[in-house]
Amino acid sequence: xxxxxxxxxxxxxxxxxxxxxxxxxxxxxxxxxxxxxxxxxxxxxxxxxxxxxxxxxxxxxxxxxxxxxxxxxxxxxxxxxxxxxxxxxxxxxxxxxxxxxxxxxxxxxxxxxxxxxxxxxxxxxx
Length: 126
Fold this sequence. Notes:
Elements: E1 4-6, E2 21-24, E3 27-33, H1 48-65, E4 73-80, H2 86-93, E5 103-108, E6 118-125
Parallel strand pairs: 4-5
Antiparallel strand pairs: 1-2, 2-3, 3-6, 4-6
Helix pairs in contact: 1-2
């Protein structure tokens, strides 16, 4: 098995010992993205919807660097510190994905890096 690290300057730099994404064969595993603005590495200003959109913008940038796009996602996992925000995630996702939508899990968690309230990762099939 070969694996290739994927990097985009249009997404936040990794803040730990991981790659933004790893490609093996036709699969690309995108690491979790939080709502950081790539140029500043600060949490995007605004409400929960703005933060959710930044997460998916970051995922889209990494997908593009891998030669794909979010419509090639087969699996998404969304991590939320408040599952009450799940309906907003659904609304936001409609702007980033077309049918057939990817499989998805939503997981309620106690906390996320940098104190944010949303994170998502993805698996693409190119």
